[in-house]
Design goal:
mainly alpha, Four Helix Bundle (Hemerythrin (Met), subunit A), homodimer, DNA-binding, 3% strand, Arc Repressor Mutant, subunit A
DNA sequence: GCTCGGGCGCTGTGATCACAGATCACTAGC
DNA sequence: GCTAGTGATCTGTGATCACAGCGCCCGAGC
């Protein structure tokens, strides 16, 4: 072997396939709420939009369907599921349990570096939320960053994957409402809960961190349910 | 519309695609441990074995890969991941948290019918485990049935999906060990924990149910880790 | 004897084609 | 006028082909 000192730290040039790219694109569309519940999706059209053949899109969609993030309606139509109030509440309860646990564990195990990141993101979110003209897109992104900064400190990769999928499922519903409402109130709540969570993690107080995250999720869910946009389960559409 | 009284209760003739079938087949292979960590998988060979083209197998495998149940090695080889001790322990801790919560919730909300099912399965498992010549395949299946009978009573469909995926990830490792060991000890432990869980669910004692399930998972994980089959994380294979 | 090089065969990935099912609009018939 | 049938056109699903990358094995050269 000749001198590969220079080769040692090559950035492992990413082996992203088109399928992965398509998946990431769709996931982003869902997480940011640009795809709303009930929106239909066509493989061929999406493929054309991405500028690829149907194959990669097809596999990406297949994955999303398997995760329950998308669904194929009986008429062979792909769409983002329309969640009833009950289903949404089940999802919220699951999130409260899973993300609450992750937050509690993060409080116990966080390193100083992780705590620093959490502080920074929380400050950024607060600044954005309290600004005169908050950028909703950016606020949503920062909210997500903050939550995952916290969960990332739990040290359980499998749990992180689970939470990622839960956010994908909840994303469309949450962001749909968040897109068309005053949201002042909601953001006020979020700020309070986020501060509580940060403080609890600083103090290594697991239960308090779990409670803060749970309250955050519950408040958002209650807010959305109170708007009554979600249909009860009754047949189709 | 003419008389569709006779049509009203048609069993909705299942719209299973070949992809779904292939997925189910692979999932079963993984859950039952017939596919061990490190085993390689070829799309074309699998397709030939199933008697279909590569397409359905390909999508099924793609889903499994997205879930982390399978992985594609850099050499473009599909295999079931080789888990290090650390990764396995992370998985176990995640399972303890998630399944423990599900069990606790099941204890609070179980109906009489669900309790009956749990009792029946537990009895069947006990009978099989205590029989002179226990059928391992059947014991594994009954163990799985019992756990899911419990979790099914939690009333949270999203949580059930999560647990299903966790079992898929843990399946190969657990069943691999279970396939080649005396296992008497392990089964004895499982019996005790299962009885505790059943009793806690009967008494609607959530924390006790969670503790019993946690102990069950922990005991199995400790047992496997103690055998030292799992490699520590050090490069590849 | 050991090592390096090149061809062969396999791999997953992507594109393209073929098909059955389902929706929709239009039209013929009561 | 309204309904029922029928064809066009979309849908996802499955099969087949094309390709680039990689492992492997065998043989030539030092």
């Amino acid at each position: 072997m000749e001198s590969l000192a220079a080769l040692a730290d090559l950035p492992q040039l990413d082996r992203r396939t088109l399928t992965d790219t398509a998946y990431a694109a769709l996931a982003d569309l869902l997480a940011s709420g640009r795809l709303a519940p009930g929106d239909k999706l066509s493989l061929r059209r999406s493929a054309a939009a991405f500028g690829v053949s149907v194959m990669p899109v097809r596999e990406a969609v297949s994955r999303l369907v398997a995760e329950g993030v998308l669904e194929v309606a009986p008429a062979r139509i792909i769409r983002v599921p329309i969640m009833g109030a009950e289903a949404f509440w089940c999802l919220a309860e699951t999130r409260i349990a899973v993300e609450g646990f992750a937050a509690a564990r993060a409080a116990d195990r966080r390193t100083e570096a992780e705590l620093d990141t959490i502080r920074q993101v929380e400050t950024a979110f607060r600044a954005e939320a309290e600004s005169r003209e908050p950028d909703r897109i950016r606020a949503v992104q920062l909210n997500r960053d903050l939550h995952f900064a916290i969960y990332g400190a739990c040290g359980l990769p499998p749990l992180l994957e689970i939470i990622g999928r839960l956010w994908l499922k909840a994303g469309p519903v949450i962001n749909l409402d968040l897109r068309a409402c005053p949201e002042r109130l909601h953001q006020g709540f979020a700020l309070k809960r986020h501060a509580e969570a940060r403080a609890a993690i600083e103090a290594r107080d697991g239960p308090a961190a779990a409670a803060a995250i749970a309250a955050d999720i519950r408040a958002a869910a209650d807010f959305i349910l109170s708007r009554g946009t979600l249909r009860e389960e009754h047949g189709k559409d």
